[in-house]
Amino acid sequence: MRGNESAGDCRGRRVTSAHMRRWAVPENSNNQVRKASKAVGKGTGTSEELESAREVLSNYRLAHAYPLNAVTVTVRQNALIVNANAIVAQRHKRMPTILDKLERHPNMSVTTMQDLGGCRVVFETVDEVDDLVALLQDLPRSRNRVKKVYDYLRGEPGPRDSGYRGVHLVYEYGASKAEYHGLQIELQVRTLLQHAWATAVETMDLFSGSELKYGKGEPDVLRYFVLVASLMAFEEGTAPVPGAEASEADLLAELRGLEHRLGIVDRLQGYASIVGVHATSDRRNALTLELHRRKRNLTVTVHETLAEAQARLTELEALDDDDLDAVLVNIARISQLREAYPNYYADTGRFTEFVISRLGTRAA
């Protein structure tokens, strides 16, 4: 397993910057944070009031940095006991993602979001996932307690309808710094296959404008990723995804038909090439992607301004061509995808290799 491709990868390293950093602390009561959440979610108030509300939310988000660091130290120590090559990374939920979620769920408060600070561990096998979860649940004298375990592999609640699989642990900070008490941190523990699936879904969402991880998108594409997830579950000996519980041979037959029509493997390989070219760009421009499905031809155009890209997208949409998928992608979001998935190329490659190998050698 490789995990040394990004500064976001914490494998085998101690955090040395903690003593040099000024940690943000919560500056507002939970009631104030809840009110700010509703104001932003519902868009109520003057522009100045909404800006003030966003500042409250931003501080609450940043205040999770210290608890996240504390939890990650403990997680890393135990993950390396399970497998010295475990990949451990930490990341804050981005502010635009928080604002988008509040707008989609206007009655939600960020105080109920368990993943404002997130840590992720990727292992080779399901057994290693289980070993780490057991270790963390049984730690003696730990004041950062595991508040809840969500088993998306077998038990409660089981694989999501979208196909997502993994195990999540929700921590509640309760260690030495009282100002952070009660803040929650989410740990995701996955295998390489589960992480490859998640990476592929994030890639499709970015480049096709879908929201597959929220169950929104073209029905055939949603079904495609559900089928692959169930086939991966067969491979790993865990529960299949709801609605994809047929035999392996039947799942493969259905997947083959969808791959023939959709060309997902080709699309993911094309998207990976785009990430390779543009992930490190410091330009603030945008891309338009034109995918002609039947020919499986992907055309990428770089635009100097967002307005130019939007004008081109309007032209393409006016064609009203059912064979054409057109989408606008901000180059900054490509960089963010690369940062969120430090082993991006290995992960997307693992997904496409899995699909190719199953369709090529195990088809019924």
How would you sum up this structure in a few lines?
The chain is of the alpha+beta class. The protein folds into 2 domains: 174 residues, Beta Polymerase, domain 2 (2-Layer Sandwich); 167 residues, no CATH class. A 5-stranded mixed sheet has the order 1-2-5-4-3. The chain has a 3-stranded antiparallel sheet with strand order 7-6-8, with helices on both faces.
Any overview of this molecule?
It is a single chain. The chain has two domains: 18-191, Beta Polymerase, domain 2 (2-Layer Sandwich), CATH 3.30.460; 195-361, no CATH class. 36% of the residues are buried. The chain is of the alpha+beta class. It is built from twelve helices and eight strands. β6 (286-292) and β7 (297-303) form a beta hairpin. The two termini are 31 Å apart. Strands 1-2-5-4-3 form a five-stranded mixed sheet. A three-stranded antiparallel sheet has the order 7-6-8, sandwiched between helices.
